[in-house]
Structure formats: structure tokens, C-alpha cells
Amino acid sequence: MSDDAMKLVVVGAAGRMGQALIRLIHATEGTTLHAAVARPGSAFIGKDAGEIAGLGPIGVPVTDDPLSAFLHAEGVIDFTTPATSVTFAGLAAQARIVHIIGTTGCSAEDETRFKAAARHARIVKSGNMGLGINLLSVLVEQAARALQSADWDIEVLEMHHKHKVDAPSGTALLLGQAAAKGRGIDFGENSVRVRDGHTGPRPAGTIGFATLRGGGVIGDHSVIFAGESERLTLSHSAGDRSLFARGALQAALWARDKKPGLYSMLDVLGLSTR
Ligand code: NAD
């Protein structure tokens, strides 16, 4: 490990993404696992983070005390729950460090809190940390701009594993927002997230969502542009959770020398059009 390796805290250390992050940080030159935080009351407190992630002992005991974890840390990577991410954004702001937020299902109120924390913290937040989906979102925006006519109906279809707790997925929403941006319409006012019973015909110009859950699917997304006589589908399949961990680590290293602010993966990947 080099002396200038970025010291990173993993929150949600025992979770699916937390374990993938611990394995990746351990294997990545230029990053070091500074601390691992689990939920208060978790059975993993005091256990070695490497053992939990299937690496064998690495000398980092899991803690439930964020303050000790943050001492001398340079960044925190957080794939947990909205309430936890809001709390950690406040702590990252106090410590003036990098906060990478992968958590999905956050409310508008949560987003306001992240914005406030980003006055002091360098926050990168994205519903999907992977290169493929972020590139896809750029393509979706372009397609929606080119297919301006409300004759082209836009539908976002997603499938995830049976343990996922929020719907539509953060990635599906990210893709829907990209489509709305391309169309130049307000996403909140034009998205249809649920259909049930006698819904009547499809309102023109809306962006619809359909959610499938089952098995161990890591994440499949399609954006369908349906015209009267042709249909265009742009899609992506995630094969392995480590792709999100790789993106999160790339984001942490990118944000290390940035000014405080709220950034997205498009900024990290140089795909931003704003
Ligand atoms: P998970 O349930 O396996 O892990 C979440 C972990 O957070 C759990 O271990 C839980 O105990 C822990 N946690 C909850 N409260 C905590 C607290 N106060 N302090 C510390 N730890 C706490 O879930 P997962 O599959 O790893 O996903 C986590 C989140 O990341 C979800 O919102 C998911 O949608 C999102 N996700 C985002 C991306 C992306 O690229 N942005 C990719 C995958 C998953």
C-alpha cells in the first residue's frame, strides 16, 4: 500500500455492495480500507471486515461508531438506506471529505439535505455507478431529443433480484430523467410509475415505468421508444455487482481533489452535457 493511498470508509459493510467494496478496495492500488461501519446492533460489529467479505482477516474491525471511523478518513462510500445516507452526508460535510452515495429510493427532502451537505462535502451521487448505464443515459437523452413527437411513447422496463426494496429502481428513474431532459419536459409531472385497473388510454407524452422482481438478477434495464410502426429499444444488463463498486471507487478517487459540490457519475466519466 502506498503512503498516499486514499483512506476510505465503507458504510453498510455487511451489505451486498459493502462486501463488494471491501474486496475491491483491498485489491486496488491507491486505495485503502480505513474503516468499515455496520448498522448499530448488527451481529457483524467487532468482526474483521475482510472475513465478512470473504477475504480472510485484514485487520479492520467493523464498527458502529461513525466518528471514530471518520478520524483521518478521506472519503466514505455508502450503499445503504436513504436515512443512513442523509446522516452520513452531514458527517462528511463536518469532516469536509468525499462522500460517494449509491443508495437509491431517496426522497426529494433527502436530496435537499444532500445539496446542503455538498456545501462542505464533495458528494458524488448516482442511482447507477456503472459506465454502461451512464453512457446509456446519454444515448437515451439523444434519442428522446430526436424522437420529439409525442407519437413516440417512452417506456422504461427494469428487473432486479427479489431482495430489492425500492421501485422503480434508481437506474430506471435516472434513465427516465434522461429521457425527460431530451424531450425538454418536467420528469415529475410526466412520469407514470404504476398502472393498475381501468387506467384509460396512455396519456400522450408521458414516460411509463414497469418493474419486475425475481431471482438473483443484478439489474436489467430497457428504454423502449414505441412509434406507430416501429420500435427502438436501448438496453443494458449488469452481470456482476463489482461493476458498481468499481465506479464508486473511480468516483472517490476523482473527487479527491475537487471542490465541495454535488456531482454525478456523468461528471466523473466526462459524459456531462450541462
Ligand atoms: P443491502 O441490504 O445488502 O446492504 C445495505 C446495508 O446497509 C445493510 O448491511 C444494512 O445493515 C446497512 N445499513 C443500514 N443502516 C445502516 C446504518 N445506519 N449504518 C451502517 N450501515 C447501515 O443492500 P445492497 O444490495 O448492498 O444495496 C444498498 C443500496 O445501494 C440500495 O439502495 C441499492 O438500491 C443501492 N445500489 C445502488 C447501486 C448504484 O450503482 N448506485 C448499485 C447497487 C445497489
UniProtKB/TrEMBL annotation:
Keywords: Amino-acid biosynthesis, Cytoplasm, Diaminopimelate biosynthesis, Lysine biosynthesis, NAD, NADP, Oxidoreductase. NADP(+) binds at R39. It catalyses: (S)-2,3,4,5-tetrahydrodipicolinate + NAD(+) + H2O = (2S,4S)-4-hydroxy-2,3,4,5-tetrahydrodipicolinate + NADH + H(+); (S)-2,3,4,5-tetrahydrodipicolinate + NADP(+) + H2O = (2S,4S)-4-hydroxy-2,3,4,5-tetrahydrodipicolinate + NADPH + H(+). NAD(+) binds at G12, A13, A14, G15, R16, M17, G102, T103, T104, S126, G127, N128, M129. It is an enzyme of class 1 (oxidoreductase). The active site is at H160 (proton donor/acceptor), K164 (proton donor). Gene3D superfamilies: Dihydrodipicolinate Reductase, domain 2, NAD(P)-binding Rossmann-like Domain. GO terms for molecular function: 4-hydroxy-tetrahydrodipicolinate reductase. The keyword Disulfide bond does not apply. Pathway: Amino-acid biosynthesis; L-lysine biosynthesis via DAP pathway; (S)-tetrahydrodipicolinate from L-aspartate: step 4/4. Pfam families: DapB_C (PF05173), DapB_N (PF01113). (S)-2,3,4,5-tetrahydrodipicolinate binds at H161, G170, T171. Its EC number is 1.17.1.8. The keyword Electron transport does not apply. It is found in: Cytoplasm. Residues 132-269 form the Dihydrodipicolinate reductase C-terminal domain. Residues 6-129 form the Dihydrodipicolinate reductase N-terminal domain. Belongs to the DapB family. NCBIfam families: dapB. Catalyzes the conversion of 4-hydroxy-tetrahydrodipicolinate (HTPA) to tetrahydrodipicolinate. Homotetramer. This is 4-hydroxy-tetrahydrodipicolinate reductase. It comes from Rhizobium mayense. The lineage of its organism: Bacteria, Pseudomonadati, Pseudomonadota, Alphaproteobacteria, Hyphomicrobiales. The gene is dapB.
